[in-house]
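wait is this the right file?? whatever heres the structure
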């Protein structure tokens, strides 16, 4: 066995050495459309700064109008380009629909010019979220668009939510998918679409990187919208979050009333609580809606609430509910029942509870029909499948990969930026030969 391992190591070293001697590696970097992806410019800069020797194949005119052709047509285009320009031993790196194009290239190429591919945040099994983002008919709001409209009806005297502008940004993002050309392109990426059904497992080495956005506050949509807004920079996701936190901290200081502070905190933990705890394992959506209505009613009954405070309550509730419903749209869930005993006795004590999970549940109980003045809770976790804010783990995975990497705490847009350690670590491991010689890029 020892001799066999030495022989394998020796052969691998020879392969890697041979590749290094061939000079710079050729890489075809393909992103997806701008609503869900970004150009690989920052990643290429990071790779160059890390000393990797490669030549980027010019993808013009793909980036000028990514959705001008369908996925198979782009695959044909790039296969012909590689052949015409005499490229060989090419590593394909694809994010989002760019990875689907690479997979179609692998199905149709004749000369094995694409020798390995890295599939980063790719809907390898399709994405069910596109059933929610795309309208059934032109001119009819998608389910995602209708969600925002319904939630905006929760406003009473406060008719605007312009403080942090995240709701407006969400509407703009949802509206992009309703454009005819966008809808036509993203129809290809639904789970049962012919494009997905016709895909075959690549017959060349491939690796998979999948994003997993798992923050306890469950504000995944806010993070995705923030990264979409900043995708040309580093995909930073904190702009809207920081704004809301600042607003909330100020309102808590202004409230000076334990009941109002408790109610405000119950609103601010709604998404986190709804994504983890429900009272009935059979219908998370119904429980989510009941708690939402209870919180909205509690706000409405505060007749003497100042206009600015009411606006903050209502807009934050809409913000939280958008996130809670988004998680339900993106991913399936399983349930786990558990009984715990806490020191929390009544609603007024919720905000002092150090355990964030228990606190979220306590706040939810305070404004529902369940008696909050107990210290033993039997409750049910709604455990959602890990996802990157757009695609679930199952949708991103592909059996048979040489190596699979989890990009923890990275949302769908951040999967393209080496500024996030899980992404940089995955690419460095691949380029250094951690998944085999097929992915080596010399330094």
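ok assuming it is, sequence goes like this
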């Amino acid at each position: 066995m020892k001799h066999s391992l030495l022989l394998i190591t020796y052969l691998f070293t020879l392969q890697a050495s041979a590749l290094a001697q061939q000079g710079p590696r050729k890489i075809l970097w393909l992103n997806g459309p701008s609503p869900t992806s970004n150009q690989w410019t920052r990643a290429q800069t990071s790779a160059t700064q890390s000393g990797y020797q490669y030549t980027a194949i010019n993808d013009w005119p793909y980036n000028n109008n990514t959705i001008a052709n369908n996925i198979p047509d782009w695959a044909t285009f790039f296969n012909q380009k590689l052949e015409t320009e005499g490229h060989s031993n090419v590593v394909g790196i694809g994010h989002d629909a760019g990875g689907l194009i690479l997979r179609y290239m692998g199905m149709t190429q004749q000369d094995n010019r694409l020798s390995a591919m890295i599939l980063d945040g790719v809907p390898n099994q399709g994405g069910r979220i596109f059933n929610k983002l795309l309208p059934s008919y032109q001119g009819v709001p998608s389910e995602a668009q209708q969600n925002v409209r319904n939630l905006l009806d929760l406003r009473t005297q406060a008719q605007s939510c312009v403080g942090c502008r995240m709701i407006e940004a969400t509407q703009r993002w949802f509206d992009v998918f309703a454009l005819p050309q966008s809808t036509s392109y993203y129809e290809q990426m639904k789970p049962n679409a012919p494009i997905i059904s016709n895909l075959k497992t690549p017959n060349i080495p491939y690796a998979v990187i999948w994003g997993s956005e798992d923050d306890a506050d469950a504000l995944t949509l806010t993070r995705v919208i923030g990264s979409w807004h900043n995708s040309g920079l580093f995909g930073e996701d904190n702009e809207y979050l920081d704004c809301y936190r600042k607003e909330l901290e100020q309102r808590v200081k202004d409230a000076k009333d334990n009941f109002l502070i408790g109610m405000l905190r119950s609103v601010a933990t709604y998404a986190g609580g709804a994504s983890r705890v429900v009272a009935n394992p059979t219908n998370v959506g119904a429980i989510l809606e009941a708690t939402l209505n209870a919180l909205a009613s509690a706000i409405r009954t505060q007749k003497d609430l100042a206009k600015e405070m009411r606006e903050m309550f209502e807009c934050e509730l809409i913000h939280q509910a958008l996130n809670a419903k988004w998680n339900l749209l993106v991913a399936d869930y399983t349930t786990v029942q558990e009984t715990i005993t806490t020191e929390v006795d009544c609603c007024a004590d919720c905000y002092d509870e150090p355990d964030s999970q228990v606190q979220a549940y306590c706040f939810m109980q305070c404004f529902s029909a369940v008696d909050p003045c107990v210290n033993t809770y039997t409750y049910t976790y709604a455990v959602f499948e890990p996802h990157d804010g757009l695609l679930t783990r199952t949708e991103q995975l592909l059996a048979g990969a040489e190596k699979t990497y989890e990009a923890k705490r990275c949302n769908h847009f951040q999967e393209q930026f080496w500024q996030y350690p899980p992404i940089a670590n995955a690419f460095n491991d691949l380029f250094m030969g951690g998944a085999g010689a097929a992915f080596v890029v010399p330094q």
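Residues 1-21 have pLDDT under 50 and may be disordered. so i think its the right one actually
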